[in-house]
């Protein structure tokens, strides 16, 4: 397997599967520089002051409060962290963008959604696809929070099939404007936005076109809104239908070119997806924090419940998902940052550099969106369980955290769509020769039919077994996906359950590897003793990943292989998911839980 050696050999999107990454080459949250730490602390302090104590008001659907907090976030520069300085942003790079998104989102899903919709899908289409006049006109106002943005793609009949919308844009007789007619649905920030990115079809074009549409209460220009949707969670996030009735938009407000809207919509979503993953991290930390404190305080059977194995197990698992989520999100964020910078150094414009980079890392963006949105759901669910009846009460933060978490699996592309996209994009990259999967997949095929190697890693070395296991999990993906491609070719996309299974293998390999690399890097610089619990978390996550991979691969193999082929692949799977030294998972969990309860907080 190749390794990453210098900056010019940056890991490409999807390449993690076939290229070994060294621990010293990954960025981890422990690598934040002083500027980033200051930013993190000021966002955290802002949320502790403006959001966390007002949780009840958000739950009681105080939409005005969301707008007010967003305005204050704008004044402090948090909305402009990713915007270049020439447009009144802070121009801080993608790791910092993820950092702000992470810490601003943890106390209320309503703020997370308002922030994500505004800074991501509401602003980025103009920043990345707008012309200079459009950027100059809109971006400074969006960066400072003078105006808020919304993104109108979904329609009653066009959800996951986003390019099928019926909203029309018709050129006026003088050729100077377009008239937009149609209905958009589920539009976040609709109640207080001044700028709407609207996707509409011109004539019978195959693809939709993007427009920048301004909204002014005094002059609504045919724009009306439905009532606020009654939702399971994110109660103070404004979500409305938006109706366009002969809304006149200057032709100058077309984004990019006619028919380019679907591309714009999808690329804006790539960024939105990885940011959504980051937006689940602080929520996991806060939920774990509350659970740890409660478990230490709550006494049953004359014992703090934190001392019960059943509770220790939950606390350990909650912290582990947060730790690994952080590892994977910031690892990918730095790859993206580095790639953008490399492109900028090569003379590309800011917009081109970002666009091409996000397209390149779309696989990781989908992986992270799926993994982290499901982790926050599990984490808040177990958080409720740790608090027992109190967890079910709206007087504790668990209940709303659980409800708020649910939407993350639906928007920015459902998790089903993202799972299938991740594998589909990877296969496409392989076909185009951008990532060499064919060679490694053939090597795995030969390994299956050859005599098993007796070479074993030196188990005295930290993570020797785990790193060997990661390599094997990647082989499982290559074996399953490689054979499936051979069998079905272009028709593979019709075998959705197989794709979903393959996607879970891919996701687990990326996440587990990120956890191990983070812990390994930190052991090298801070010592093994100082990282005892982090080592335990990395190993615990991997243990579950191996189980998931085993189960999903079995399912996949049985769905398309029979007889000798099936037997051979199942034997390979057994070999690729076999621990030489089975970890003591109970001991790992106890180590993690004891640290959490002794510190009385999420402390990693
Ligand atoms: C609170 C909230 C805020 C939102 N904010 C915005 C916003 O600001 N702007 C915006 O444009 N949209 C927004 N959305 C819309 C959101 O992006 C869509 O709800 C989402 O893309 C799914 O579309 P849908 O609801 O029509 O579900 P559908 O597409 O009808 O999907 C229903 C189910 O079928 C599955 N499915 C669909 N197609 C396939 C397929 N090809 N293969 C396998 N399974 C499939 C889905 O995974 C899902 O499980 C928001 C939604 C909500 C609920």
From TrEMBL:
Pfam families: Acyl-CoA-dh_C (PF21263), Acyl-CoA_dh_1 (PF00441), Acyl-CoA_dh_M (PF02770), Acyl-CoA_dh_N (PF02771). Residues 472-575 form the Acyl-CoA dehydrogenase-like C-terminal domain. GO terms for molecular function: acyl-CoA dehydrogenase activity; flavin adenine dinucleotide binding. PROSITE patterns: ACYL_COA_DH_1. Residues 33-146 form the Acyl-CoA dehydrogenase/oxidase N-terminal domain. Residues 150-246 form the Acyl-CoA oxidase/dehydrogenase middle domain. The keyword Ion transport does not apply. Keywords: FAD, Flavoprotein, Oxidoreductase. Residues 259-421 form the Acyl-CoA dehydrogenase/oxidase C-terminal domain. Its cofactor is FAD. Gene3D superfamilies: Acyl-CoA dehydrogenase/oxidase, N-terminal domain, Butyryl-CoA Dehydrogenase, subunit A, domain 2, Butyryl-CoA Dehydrogenase, subunit A, domain 3. InterPro entries: Acyl-CoA-dh-like_C, Acyl-CoA_DH_CS, Acyl-CoA_Oxase/DH_mid-dom, Acyl-CoA_Oxase/DH_mid-dom_sf, AcylCo_DH-like_C, AcylCo_DH/oxidase_C, AcylCoA_DH/ox_N, AcylCoA_DH/ox_N_sf. Belongs to the acyl-CoA dehydrogenase family. This is Acyl-CoA dehydrogenase. It comes from Salegentibacter holothuriorum.
């Amino acid at each position: 397997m190749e390794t990453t050696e210098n900056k010019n050999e940056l890991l490409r999107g999807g390449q993690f599967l076939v290229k070994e990454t060294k621990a010293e080459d990954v960025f981890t949250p422990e690598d934040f520089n002083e500027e980033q730490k200051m930013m993190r602390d000021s966002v955290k302090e802002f949320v502790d002051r403006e959001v966390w104590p007002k949780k009840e008001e958000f739950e009681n659907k105080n939409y005005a409060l969301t707008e007010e907090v967003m305005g204050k976030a704008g004044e402090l520069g948090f909305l402009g962290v990713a915007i270049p300085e020439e447009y009144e942003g802070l121009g801080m790079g993608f790791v910092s963008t993820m950092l702000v998104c992470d810490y601003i989102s943890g106390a209320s899903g309503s703020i997370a959604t308002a922030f994500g919709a505004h800074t991501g899908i509401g602003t980025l289409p103009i920043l990345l696809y707008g012309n200079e006049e459009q950027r100059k006109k809109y971006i400074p106002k969006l960066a400072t929070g003078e105006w808020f943005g919304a993104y109108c793609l979904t329609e009653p009949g066009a959800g996951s099939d986003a390019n099928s919308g019926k909203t029309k844009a018709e050129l006026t007789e003088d050729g100077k404007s377009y008239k937009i007619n149609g209905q958009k649905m589920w539009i976040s920030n609709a109640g207080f936005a001044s700028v709407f990115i609207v996707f509409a079809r011109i004539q019978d074009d195959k693809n939709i076109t993007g427009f920048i549409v301004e909204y002014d209460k005094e002059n609504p220009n045919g724009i009306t809104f439905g009532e606020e949707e009654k939702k399971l969670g994110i109660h103070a996030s404004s979500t409305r239908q938006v109706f366009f009735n002969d809304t006149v938009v200057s032709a100058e407000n077309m984004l990019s070119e006619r028919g380019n809207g679907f591309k714009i919509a999808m690329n804006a979503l790539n960024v939105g997806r990885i940011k959504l993953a980051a937006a689940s991290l602080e929520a996991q930390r806060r939920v774990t924090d509350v659970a740890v404190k409660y478990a230490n305080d709550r006494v049953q059977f004359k014992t703090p419940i934190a001392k019960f194995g059943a509770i220790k197990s939950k606390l350990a698992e909650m912290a582990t998902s947060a730790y690994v989520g952080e590892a994977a999100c910031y690892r990918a964020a730095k790859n993206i940052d580095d790639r953008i910078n490399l492109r900028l150094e090569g003379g590309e414009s800011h917009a081109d550099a970002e666009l091409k980079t996000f397209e390149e890392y779309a696989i990781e963006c989908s992986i992270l969106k799926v993994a982290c949105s499901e982790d926050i759901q599990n984490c808040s669910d177990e958080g409720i369980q740790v608090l027992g009846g109190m967890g079910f009460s709206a007087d504790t933060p668990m209940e709303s955290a659980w409800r708020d978490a649910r939407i993350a699996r639906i928007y920015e592309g459902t998790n089903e769509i993202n799972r299938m996209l991740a594998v589909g994009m990877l296969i496409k990259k392989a076909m185009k020769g951008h990532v060499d999967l064919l060679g490694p997949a053939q090597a795995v095929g030969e390994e299956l039919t050859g005599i098993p190697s007796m070479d074993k890693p030196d188990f005295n070395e930290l993570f020797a077994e785990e790193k060997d296991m990661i390599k094997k999990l990647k082989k499982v993906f290559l074996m399953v996906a490689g054979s499936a491609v051979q069998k079905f070719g272009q028709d593979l996309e019709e075998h959705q359950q197989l794709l979903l299974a393959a996607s879970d293998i891919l996701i687990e390999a990326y996440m587990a590897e990120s956890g191990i690399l983070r812990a390994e890097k930190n052991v090298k610089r801070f010592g093994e003793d100082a990282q005892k619990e982090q080592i335990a978390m990395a190993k615990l996550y991997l243990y579950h990943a191996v189980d998931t991979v085993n189960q999903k691969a079995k399912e996949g193999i049985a769905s398309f292989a029979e007889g000798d082929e099936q037997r051979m692949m199942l034997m390979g799977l057994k070999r690729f998911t076999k621990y030489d030294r089975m970890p003591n998972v109970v001991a790992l969990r106890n180590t993690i839980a004891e640290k959490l309860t002794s510190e009385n907080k999420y402390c990693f």
